What we know:
22% of the residues lie in helices and 41% in strands. By secondary structure, the chain is α+β, with helices and mostly antiparallel strands.
Amino acid sequence: xxxxxxxxxxLSTMSSYQNNRRTMSLxxxxxxxxxxxxxxxGSYKGSKETSFIVSSxxxxxxxxxxxxxxxxxxxxxxxxxxxxxxxxxNNVIDLMGRMMQIESSELPEAYTIVNxxxxxxxxx
Length: 124
């Protein structure tokens, strides 16, 4: 995956009902803004969540959505597949490594499943 942003509307402190409502609200927002997305399953800090993948050309909109949905960070993938976390509270960018497809038998604490393929960041 390259030139993509991965993010969620869910919060680990909320119930599945509340997170489902947040996810539906994000879907409606993306559709209303005519932003194409791919729905995925992700894990962040060990919490499984519904995630969304959009083109990195929508970075400013996604940063606004990150604040609207009180998200800690978004995953940014550059043109070479290098991954970084961009944090909302201080706009710090944490370079992490390269996003790579992995075997589903070796799920780490953070991963993304899209089209039945599992991806995770491997340190450089």
